[in-house]
Amino acid sequence: MVNLTIDGKEITVSKTATIYEAAKEAGIDIPVLCYAKKLLPYGACRVCLVEVEQMKGRLIPSCTTPVTEGMVVTTMSDEIQKVRKTVLEFLLVNHVIDCPVCDKGGECDLQDLTYEYEVVTNRFEGEKFDLPTDEVNPLIERNMNRCVLCGKCVRVCDEIVGYGSYSFINRGFETKIATAFDRGLNCEFCGQCVSMCPVGAILPRPFKFKARPWQIKEVDSVCSYCGNGCTITMGVKDNKVQTIRFNDKIGVNDGNLCIRGRFGYSYANSDDRLTTPLIKKDGELVEASWDEALEAVAEGFKKAAADKGVGIISGARLTNEELFLLKNVAKAIGTENLDHSGGECYKGVTEGLVETLGVKASTGTFPQVEDADVILSIRSDFYETHPVFGMVVNQAVKRNEAQLFIVADKKGKFGKLPNAETLLHKPALEVNVLNAMAQALIEDGSAVTDGVDGLDELKKSLADYAPEKVAAATGVPAEQIKAAAKALAGANKSAILLAYGLPYTAQSKEIAVAAANLAILSGNVDKEGSNLYLCGEKANSQGAIDLGVIPAGSGQGAQQMLDAAAAGSLSALYVVGEDMVTSYPDREKVEKALDGAGFVVAQDLFLSPTAQKADVVLPAASFAEKDGTFTNAERRIQRVHPGITSPGEAKTDYAIFELLANKLGAGLSYTGPAAVFAALANEVDAYKGVEFNAIGAQGVVWGGEELKAATKKVVPVKGAAAVDGKFVLLTGSALYHSGTVSTHAKGPVAVVPEAYVEFGSEDATVLQVADGDMIKIKANGAEVQLKAKVDKRLPQGVVFAPYHFAEAGLNKLYKGEAAIAVEVSK
Amino acid sequence: MSEAVEQVQEEEIDLGPCNAILDKYVDMPGALMPSLQAIQDHYGYIPEPTVHLTAERLNVYASQIYGVLTFYAQFHLEPRGKYIVRVCMGTACHVKGAGRIGDTIKDRLGVGHAETTEDLKFTAEYVACIGACGMAPVIMVNDDTYGSMTVQKMDEVLEKYQKMD
Fold first, then answer.
1. Nearest to A582 by CA among A594, A572, A590, A592
2. Could you give all domains of chain A from N- to C-terminal order, each with its CATH number?
3. Per residue in B30-57, pLDDT tens?
4. What is the ipTM of this complex?
5. Terminal CA-CA length for chain A
6. Which CATH number fits domain B83-163: 3.40.309.10, 3.40.50.150, 3.40.30.10, 1.10.10.10?
7. Which of B56, B66, B71 has its CB closest to that of A181?
8. Which of A199, A594, A729, A783 has a C-alpha 20 to 30 A away from that of A64?
9. Does the pTM of the predicted model rise above 0.95?
10. Domain chopping of chain B, boundaries
11. Residue A752 contacts B, CB cutoff 8 Å
12. From the candidates B52, B54, B63, B72, which should be mutated to test the interface with A, based on the most A CB atoms within 10 A?
């Protein structure tokens, strides 16, 4: 710690602090333009100049100068005032003064400082820039005439996002921020640069001319897309979410968001939203009143329950409170057939972890990953499924020099980081590689074996997974497997990351077990600060597992229910918040199930292909209309707050479940989400003691920052055989989308409007395929046509297609396999 | 990456030599400047595809490379002439009539400062002092220096290089 005096105030701060940070801690404001808490000090704008007694004769930039013992700092004097004003005058020489039409007006740092320092006239004159505005992409507008060259956009894109869209180009007066070759922006559109820009140079296009900052009501909530659980602050006006506001003060994400979080909110405002209940009459879905619809649903379920039974399949974007009410509805119906999306994927993963470690969730929290010195990421898609968690890994690697190993079937952005190595394996062979890593640890004697159960059987089974042997089968060099295993075992703090979700249903349990084995053998489980991270695809995937929205007793799981319904041995299906026809593997089976079940109820925001097959459709509400809690992938229970009211007669799932339960004769009389949470906390051990209204801005992590593994049991697990075929198709999540709901959000759709099939550049050259060509893909007796996209991340013989799009019908091809052999032709 | 972008037609060049250059530098710390210089030495300028290849192989953002290329005057993003005619416009040369030398080049070849003839034979460049004031007005053609230039001598020099390949 260092002692210093700022403006007569004696303060003690950490020795790594800068003068600016020390002043801030002491509650003293120093103006800045180029400083941002999460970026490295830069010192570009010179607005933060202060006087330091020990450094007389010049003014000192407070944001880049570290504190020293006994330093005496003055943050305001006539001299400082004069110099800051001069700096502003310089900035205003070429800054266009178009504040009346600039969306930043009212919350612009330059505008505020100009006002504060009363820069009424300017002693300097010069040319204003007249640069064209970059309006090539639909999401981010760049007007470089307003730029003050603080470099925040350049730095955030490099330091945090790791994409590197921007650079300073040219020199001297001509200096400006540009992309390579000064073209229109073409990137991941996460909008980090938008959130960092202190002026109106980089703005969100969908928000243009929508509202003045002071007209906006800010509502803090949690993003509804992936399991990362980023805080998003909705900017609400006219009962519409107009934008997502920058907020780095609360939550897990430091103000960082991905394209879905920042631009994907608009599905809540979509004109396609369902606004009234629908009932099928003479084969047509027609509008109905809530009373009629609920009556029909209650009647239908009662009849079905008395017949062959009802099955309930839920999505994982419902709040914890809603999931709890759904369990009550299931009880009221009298069915134990209750499951949530993913069918096998989450089930396998949790079963695997329970068998080995005795837990069903990540053992650590995200910030601990930043301190890890070795990180093992299983599946490169991790960055694409949980982009903001990807940014955490980014910082661990770039700032703290963590070593990163990626076990993946395609190259990704992670692989480009310094100190990153991709263990690029043939499709579907993750488990083989993980097994080989475990075997490498056992072979060289570095495996942790104290207190580990099941070692002998594991050793026996791993004999088949010698690194050399696995290398031949998977294509990952044995040396690389050994090196990765050695590094993981040698780490002081390690992190093992595993993502799961609907497109990854195959081998879920095997992968979880193999990852857990490795966690045990490498000492990850024992070491403080070392953790295994299990990241669900949807906002409340963890909540659904915690609450036990899974079959109980003799209840059937999602896949069993679909099989039963298809065979005519289940009378009704209740599908809540999931478009199974699009997102579940094996579309044919799902469709057969929906046809086979005599009575189908769909509860959704949109008339999805699944809802179209329903007998009754209930219009539900988006996250923006809900009050409740989500539990993210680090077990953090966070509050969701409503910003708008639902369109038309749409109701929250909460309200619908309550009404339905009452219709079914099981009077639920909760006074609101707080009461429901209290009730569920009573039933779910992990949530015991958590008080709904006491959940603060940082949420509550159940089980504490580090969840101790209950058991340490290694379990033998079989790898897979390589998929034979000239081309192998992988499916998965694309960075720009999440589940199916993002296909109703303007932002993500503007960037990726439709499905595609991605080729590696080598295959593309051989097949003479170019971007936009229509490609026929045949497998499992079905054929789909997709537009081609050529990139550099796929190895030869592997093609990839994202699973989000209903029209594409990708799940006609795959039936839950990790990868399938396909025929590809133009 | 996305659909929402302008399509840029990439020029087609042989990237073999660029790869060979990068092979040499790839493991060296601070490889960017020497790589770019070597690429320019080979191709005469920095073609766009070499920037993308360099970005990929050296793991540097293309935007950063573009920043470097536009910062230093030594790099050129457009094809340049085989012979670079540098006309000194320093004080001594200016006083001794460097302007007329520049005008002569413009008149005979049709190219002014930083312009290249269509046949890619000559590029004219007006530069500040090249440190040979005793020879003012002075020009350089690639690495050869010609002093005490006159309009007539300029014609002779141009004619000499015109005849060369």
1. A590
2. 2-76 (3.10.20.740), 131-269 (3.30.70.20), 278-341+542-701 (3.40.50.740), 346-537 (3.40.228.10), 727-825 (2.40.40.20)
3. 999 999 999 999 998 999 999 999 999 9
4. 0.91
5. 67
6. 3.40.30.10
7. B66
8. A199
9. no
10. 16-71, 83-163
11. yes
12. B63
